[in-house]
Every structure is written in C-alpha cells, then in structure tokens.
What does this fold into?
Amino acid sequence: MILRNRLERRRALLVGVAAIGVARWTTVRSATAAPLVEVWKSPSCGCCKDWVAHLQASGFGVEVHDSGNVAARARLGVDARFGSCHTAVVAGYAIEGHVPASDIRRLLKERPVAVGLAVPGMPIGTPGMDGPEYKGRKDPYDVLLLQANGTASVYRRDR
It folds into this structure.
C-alpha cells in the first residue's frame, strides 16, 4: 500500500508540474502572439490571397470572408477615397489595402488614436502586389494613418 501511495503521489506531482509548464507556455505564447486579422475580399482576387499569405508568413492569424469589402470598409469608417481591393480589422483598427505586416505590427505597438492604416489603390511592389508577374517592379507608395474625421497623414513612405 505504501508503494502505491508513493507512485500515486509521484504521478500527481508530475501531472501538476506538467500543468504548470503548459500554463506558463500558454501565457507566454498569448502575450507574444499576433492578434487575429479579419479580412473581407472578393473570392476571385489573387492579390488579396497573396496579401493574406504575407500576413500569415509574418505570424498573423487570418480569418477570410470572401464576400467583398465595400460594406466592411463603410462599417469600419474608412472613406472610399482610401479604398483598395480588401479591407481588414485587427485589434479594433481598420486595415485597407496592401499594408505591410511590419506597419500593422508598429500600429499595434504604438496604439495611436486612429481608425487604422491604408494603402489606397493597388501599388505594385506592396505585399500581395509583388508577384513574379511584376518582374521586380516597385512603385513608391505611402502607408496612411486614417483619422475618424476623414483625414489622413503619412504613417510611412516607401520610396
């Protein structure tokens, strides 16, 4: 009977230590994991799929809605003049167009009071618009910080 109790105590101790390890790993993982990006796009848009792949390769989880983005853009408060082919939301911020993952990470770190970020149009060389069919071409573009009053300022220039 003593041996059985020792084995049971050892097993309980090992299970407890393992549970603490899992809890610590989960806490560290959730503190460093990028938040989920929810994307609205056309089901047939190839550059949108490439932008989603860019986000995933950069460590973001992505949920895609293949229902178009016009309603999402309006709901998130992004003026149509800043529009592009897809709209996303991450941690309460709107992301319009081919915004690089590095700019999204900066936004989430700095947490400015803003609607979100936009790369209007579809500039060649942005993530998702950088495939082999463009033969290395890269157009200059601005990443814009969008404000609730409809204005925008340059968040980062890519030249």
